[in-house]
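In the previous chapter we treated chains in isolation. Here, by contrast, the input contains two separate entities that must be folded as one system, with a combined length of 392 residues.
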Amino acid sequence: MHDSHLLINKAFTYAKRQELSDPENCRYNEILGFWLWGNDKAPLVKSNNPDLPKPGTKKEDIETGEDLKGE
Amino acid sequence: MTRIYPEVLVLSNKHDYSTDHVSFQLNRIGASYLRLNRDQLSEMQICLDPISQKLSGKAKDFSFEILHEKLKSIYFRAPVYLRDNYQPGLSPNEQLSRSQWAAFIRSLSVFDKALWLNYPQATYQAEIKPYQLHIANKLGFDVPKTSIANSIGCQNIAHDKREKLIIKTLDPLVLSISDKEAFIYTNAIELDDLSKADISSAPIILQEALIPKIDIRVTVIENIVFAVEIKKDSDGIDKDWRLEKDNVSYTSIILPSELEFKCITLVKELGLKFGAIDLALHNGKYYFLEINPTGEWAWLVSNTNLEIDKAIADILVRGNE
């Protein structure tokens, strides 16, 4: 039996990703095309609240971004 | 019920927060736009007429009609093709749904007069890393010595057995390894270790290691360039900086004008309107590493206040004027 390929030996392993769920206390507005949060219904991406998910960061590269081309 | 006749169509999915930035900017400037999320299409009634180039649909709270004579642009935040067919546990219905909605999204290429950011066909070719290197080299970029191979020996990249080379995948992928997942970042490896390793079952990219280096991310939107230097503790990062992403700093920089022009030209040459280019500054020279036509950018809006979201919204509103 062959050894594993070099790239597989070098792979960065992590726990399987869960299905993306809706951010807490947020609602997606289909007309506006972006998420709103809180009672004020402020745009989620413009929030500085550290308790909210930080959208659009490089941290999400595996989840939704360039490494998966938005899959 | 609200009826929408959009001039800008945004194709994305519901949890793609980068798209939120663009929708927010489109809303701010009063644009006529519609965001359709691929993961919500099954909840709508949708009909595409490819002959008259018309897409109409009805959702719970709104309906829409997209007419080719009115549509200015399409922001395409969708994969060119799905790479997740390996996923276990999908029912036949889910498999059919994924495959056919993906084809439906591609079918929107009937709107061929609109500006696409980016056009799927151009993205498909531009994602081919060796092709990128070929075009970048042709345009005068410095590029690292590179081979794509499944054996060691034919390369003329490193000679000393302690010398390092870069190894990376030809195409990004997520591996399923028993109950975990794995992603393959760019790695540096000594020639001696490489020569003992098995790479026969799949070709890899072998590249000259640019060490030390400073990583630079250049985001190009047509003729607008946003460049950011990526450092850790004021120094460059010799390994794949994405592995250090919680500890790095991003600083907006101005590139030499000739290099900036080359970046714009590269994006045009590849038939793109948007490109995220990775450069490395090594020994005083800027090297082209790769370009990602679907590259992420919203993390730069959050970290550097660069107005990439505004630039994208502006080009979408302008269309092919």
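The longest helix of chain B spans residues 92-107. The first strand of chain B starts at residue 2 and ends at 4. Compare these points with the single-chain example from earlier in the chapter.
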